[in-house]
Amino acid sequence: LKNHPNQKPETRTAYRLFGESVKSFRALSKLKLATFAQMANVMPSTLSNIERGITIPTVETMLNITKAME
């Protein structure tokens, strides 16, 4: 994750954990990235970046992803 001037280290860790959880869910569910991205209404590249801890997802994106995990 890119460092933001006012972002605490624990915040970056939380986003990384979210991404790792999504990736684990997807693997356990045997879903391809493109399939799950479509289910979550996000671009595959965005989902990939979230899973790898490169992108901080918006609240809307996090909600879409968690709804797709239900």
Tags for this model:
70 residues; mainly alpha; 4 helices
Task: Give a quick rundown of the structure.
With 70 residues, the chain is an all-alpha fold. It is built from four helices and no strands. Helix 2 crosses helix 3.
Describe this structure in words.
- The protein is mainly α and 70 residues long.
- Helix content is 64%, strand content 0%.
- The protein contains 4 helices and no strands.
- The protein has helices spanning 9-28, 33-39, 44-51, 59-68.
- α1 packs across α3 (44-51) and α2 crosses α3.
- The mean pLDDT is 89.
Layout of helices and strands, plus pairs?
Blueprint: H1 9-28, H2 33-39, H3 44-51, H4 59-68
Helix pairs in contact: 1-3, 2-3
What percent of residues are in strands?
under 5%
Structural class: mainly alpha
Number of helices: 4
Secondary structure: number of strands: 0
Distance between the termini: 26 Å
Question: Oligomerization state of this entry?
Answer: single chain
What share of the residues lie within helices?
A: 55-70%
What is the CA-based Rg, rounded? 12 Å
Biggest sheet character: none
Instruction: Return the average pLDDT rounded to an integer.
Output: 89
Instruction: Please write the string of helix (H) and strand (E) elements.
Output: HHHH
Low-pLDDT segments, ≥5 res = none
Overall geometry comes to globular
